Amino acid sequence: MIKSIRVEGAQRLEPETVLSYTKLRTGQAFTNETLDQAIKDLYASELFADVIIAGADTGDLVLRVRENPVINRVIFEGNKRLKEDKIKKEVKLAPRQIFTRTAVRQDVARIVELYRRQGRFAAVVEPKMVSLDQNRVDVIFEVSEGPKSKVRQINILGNEVYSDSKLREQMATKQARLTTLLSSNTSYDQDRLAYDQQKLRQFYLTEGYADFKVTSAVAELTPDKKDFIITYVVEEGKRYKFGDISVDSDIRDFDNKKLAANLGINKGDWYDAKKVETAIDSLSEAAGLFGYAFTEVNPDYARDKDTLTMGINFHIAEAKRTYVERIDINGNTQTQDKVIRREIRLSEGDAFNSFQVKRSQDRINSLGYFQDKFEIKQTQGSSPDRVVLTANLEEKSTGELSLSAGYSSLERFIIQASIRQRNFRGKGQELRASVNYSTYSKSVELGFTEPYLFNKNIAIGGDIFRRDYNAFNYTVDNQRQTTYTQVSTGFQIRSGVPLTEYWQLAGRYGLSYDQVGLDKSTYYTDSNFDGVRGNSSADACDPLQAGRYLCDAIGNRWTSSVGYSLIYDSLNSRLRPTAGHRFIFSQDIAGLGGDVKYIRTKFEGSKFFNIGSGFIASANLEGGYIKSLEKSRGVGIDNVRITDRFYLGEPDFRGFDIRGVGPRVQRQSYTTDAAGNQTLVTDRTQLLADDALGGRAYYLGKLELEIPLGAGARELGLRPSIYVQAGALFGITSPVLQGSQFPTQIDPVTGRVTYLPLITQNFASNGNPLYVVPTTDALNAGSATTCAVGYSATIGGACTGTSVNTASTSSTAPFKETFGGDSPRPRISVGAGVNWNSPFGPLRIDLAYALLKDKSDDSKLVTFNVGTQF
């Protein structure tokens, strides 16, 4: 019998608490088994490190216990690949908890499993305990992470038709090689092993091997725990062809024979499981067009192993017409509901239509406000003939900050910056601003668009702009010399209305004021001349300095134009389309007031093809023509002004510089070689002038193929493409060229012709000739005057004195002007580019080579731009 029970060694726990974990009570009988069970119960509480029961021989029991320590801290050391926060979420030990060795072993196993999920099977975790006062401990997990275990080899046994390399291409898991250095799929993953087996089965089923199966898949870890060797054993079986294909529909509206004929499966073709899946989807979509949302299509297979054929009967089960009960929109925290609902082509209560659901999905994707691969889910409503449409959205950044930089042999460095918010205030409005800066041009533009005015399907918007364009060339000593400037200031108002689901009509009105002038250095009489014709008494442009084509361009004028665009758009996404096409025909008519009159016509067309396996092909074609409505402006002067013409080059025509294609005037200087012969300078960087004149007509076509990459590259956000472009700019009147007025000297012996500088008289602002007082004059030596004899400090004033003055003249070095590039003959460029979602924003790099060009065109090899989102 138990006479008494005493507890010794308890520090934190009361004796009554210790006894509560046992069934021992005073006055009860006990045996050795009873005492053993009491010890087990105390250990099971995980509160004690040691338990001893004494006094069994007398009945006065003494429970001597040693409590488990309390955890003071849990420390992790050596973990570099896994952050401490991620490990803490998995382990159970924590400060102020009771320390037990069992809990430590369990946490070690959890940490090791975390590393195995990362492919680090060589990871080792060593637990240590540091004893402190008051029966406390620090628990330290020392981690040796080890290298990432790679898949060294993938072996396939039993395959006879297809090679190992062909089958490895189908798998997500890749062998660790230099070519897969950036891929994360070279690490071993047990889940991926099962996925690869399914991929192998899918591949064989699409090739006609309906009996294929994977009999075993084994992954072996090498002794050093660094690599895995995976071995698959497969049975390919026989290859089947399609047999009889039929459709059996319980829905009376369907023509079974017509449905079977349009499935794209022909008897005698090799069996392809993917075609069967496509046929099921096609039949489901066809049912959806008739309003049957939940139609079941069940294929019944008739396999004939003797003839190796696979007959299929597609059974369409009976279903009721369905109606839209409710449309739920979830996940839009910033975007207002109405912005999304106005893109949905169905309303609550409408008959269900799968085409309209797909169209709604494409329109919402085209907004660009939400993550890609968005789908509208269809679920059963309150009754079998009701369907609930659910749009589960995940918003993304709609603000765009774009920065681009480039280098041009003409412009040197180019910087462009723009900011755009495509979903301003969550109402679908667009607000944008852009700034472009280079030594060639500067511009500031602001714009705003409201897509639904007063909640009606009418878009309205406007732009204001200021563009400062400076044409210039470099002198022989590489100094920049401005030729002419163009400053355009104006605005445009736009509006658009839909005609049908795919057709839209847009209209616009624009008003701009253009100031085209020349640098003062191109005028030779009045230093106060502001470079604009009509603003000086001299009112004369020196063609020898600026060129006749620039002298004809200067002036100030208003342009008032009205225009329209007819647009057809069936793209599945306006941001990253993979299917559909887009066509735009537009005309702008200038002459509704103002000083300029013309008709500008343009067309643009593009088509996108998803050709499978991740490849996206696209074809683009555009062109335009300007017809002047003005009378002739003189010989060698085109009726369409230089500021109104088309220009072609970067960024639209890759491989060529900004305004690098089409008609241009180049001015070459003369130099003398070692033999004393006068030759033209051909170095493009040494040209006296290299001015693009634009054209009245152009065309530009492009074929582009976006190439899919492996999983590792996709994780980095890399999207490369290759392309070929062809285009031309042409159709202006040949300008009057300068250079024929230079005097020549002919060597009587060799007959060699040498062009000499042109000496011209300088004139004052009143038109009188200027003279220079001789240096021998005591009072006005070297001064300029309008007096041939004597001196006058004022222009046209009375002459005093007797000095005989010499005429003031200017010397112009000889040069030759050539006009070229005005040809419809196509220029062709080929190139490759890549989009990269880099850590600092979207980056685009292009490498394009001008394969076919005119000798006057200005080519460019490399361009890049970078941006970010917010």
Automatic annotation (TrEMBL):
Domain POTRA span(s) in chain numbering: 1-68, 69-146, 149-237, 322-396
Keywords recorded for this protein, A-Z: Cell outer membrane, Membrane, Repeat, Signal, Transmembrane, Transmembrane beta strand
Any GO BP: protein insertion into membrane
Keyword flag Repeat: yes
The organism's place on the tree of life at top rank: Bacteria
Keyword Signal: yes
Localization, UniProt: Cell outer membrane; Membrane
GO CC terms of this entry: cell outer membrane
Pfam families: Omp85, POTRA
Family label: Belongs to the BamA family.
Subunit structure: Part of the Bam complex.
Biological role: Part of the outer membrane protein assembly complex, which is involved in assembly and insertion of beta-barrel proteins into the outer membrane.
Protein name: Outer membrane protein assembly factor BamA
Originating species: Sphingomonas glacialis
